[in-house]
Amino acid sequence: MNYKFETATVIGTGMMGPGIALTLALGGVRATILSRKEDSARNGLTKAFEQLALIREHALAPADRCDRAATLIDSSADFDASIAQADLVVESAPEDMKFKQELFARMDRLAKPTAALASNTSGLSITAIQSACRNPSRVVTTHFWNPPHLMPLVEIVKGRHTDHSLAVALKKLLEDCGKVGIIVKRDTPGQLGNRLQMALVREAVNIVQEGIADVEDVDLCAKSGFGLRLPVYGIFEHQDMVGLDMSSSIVNYVAQDLNNDPKAPQLMNDLVAQGKLGVKTGQGFYDWSVKDPAAVRARRDAFVLDFLKRWRQ
Ligand SMILES: NC(=O)c1ccc[n+]([C@@H]2O[C@H](COP(=O)([O-])OP(=O)(O)OC[C@H]3O[C@@H](n4cnc5c(N)ncnc54)[C@H](O)[C@@H]3O)[C@@H](O)[C@H]2O)c1
Q1: Which atom of ligand 1 is nearest to the CA of 36?
Q2: Which phi and psi angles does 217 have, rounded to 5°?
Q3: What is the pLDDT along the chain (313 residues), one digit of tens a residue?
Q4: Backbone angles phi, psi at 184, to 5 degrees
Q5: How far apart are CA 246 and CA 248, in angstroms?
Q6: Count of Cβ atoms closer than 10 Å to residue 135 Cβ
Q7: Measured from the CB, is residue 12 less than 6 Å from ligand 1?
Q8: Which of 40, 43, 76, 122 is catalytic?
Q9: Residue to mutate (ligand 1; options 99, 122, 124, 157; most atoms within 8 A of CB)
Q10: Residue 298 phi/psi, 5° resolution?
Q11: CA distances from 170 to 155, 160, 163, 213 (A)
């Protein structure tokens, strides 16, 4: 099928919705932020304009694109009309399977036959979500990474019944919006990025649990070692550079000793049981009563902005 994306509706005004709508507007799509109430829809629009100001300030998109985006984005609390006029709906509402299935069934009834229906789900099965629709082939995951107006990656995850040409059309659209779209061919837990990330988290906690190294040193190892090249040098590029003969012998030797449990290591579960949930309770792997979370976030944001500025050029 030939998809065209001139108008989009983004459901949700929380952490993700406004940045997704702004992304689409930067790609030339007329984007409506949809909420249940007028005032929260307007708040969502305000957030999107704040994000646009940041993008302008750091020249992360050409000025004329920013000017155009400002004219293309609006808000609404009229669910039926917003869904009915959209070529693309991106749902970024609560992460709950029953809720999303009911929402998609409703959207499937209201949307134009040619419209695409996407979920920003972080991990729910899009195959299960699309099973609630009469036309499951137009249902797909577009998983934006937080914060969505800055992070380049969007995972386009196909459910069992998703039309492949829809995934291809969305990849092109997202690239026009300045994003990096990747197609995940099969709907599995963790999609793609979180599969990689969780494998690393499990081993990092295991290393601390086994007394191989301390928390601070594991973080330093990631930040000043292999992590430093990851933004520019993919995993497989690196493997080919070092040579698969050497690399496979290292994997064969090390893999026998890696944590392979089908759950989080005990240390992590123990911290949770003790209420040590990280920054929000003041204690996690670090003691956040002495370490300043605002300073750590500011360091991350400055690094990401700096990287994006050079990456966009
Ligand atoms: N926060 C993240 O880091 C992140 C990253 C990637 C994907 N996601 C996914 O994006 C989706 C939204 O996450 P979020 O962090 O933006 O959530 P959030 O809680 O910040 O926002 C959810 C939004 O949904 C709205 N909402 C609640 N009930 C609703 C209803 N019945 N109908 C319509 N809207 C309703 C809320 O008002 C709110 O605007 C989830 O599926 C989540 O898994 C989140």
Answers
A1: 33
A2: -75, -30
A3: 889 999 999 999 999 999 999 999 999 999 999 999 999 999 999 999 999 999 999 999 999 999 999 999 999 999 999 999 999 999 999 999 999 999 999 999 999 999 999 999 998 999 999 999 999 999 999 999 999 999 999 999 999 999 999 999 999 999 999 999 999 999 999 999 999 999 999 999 999 999 999 999 999 999 999 999 998 899 999 999 999 999 999 999 999 999 999 999 999 999 999 999 999 999 999 999 999 999 999 999 999 999 999 888 7
A4: -100, 115
A5: 6
A6: 14
A7: yes
A8: 122
A9: 122
A10: -60, -40
A11: 10, 17, 11, 43
Structure tokens at 168: 């291809």
Q: Is the CB of 94 under 6 A from ligand 1?
A: yes
Q: Which residue has the tokens 């690239």?
A: 175
Extract the tokens encoding 277. Answer: 């949930």
Single-letter code of the amino acid located at 16: M
Active site residue 194: yes
pTM for the whole thing? 0.94
Beta strands at 139-144 and 153-157: parallel, antiparallel or unpaired = antiparallel
102 part of the active site:
no
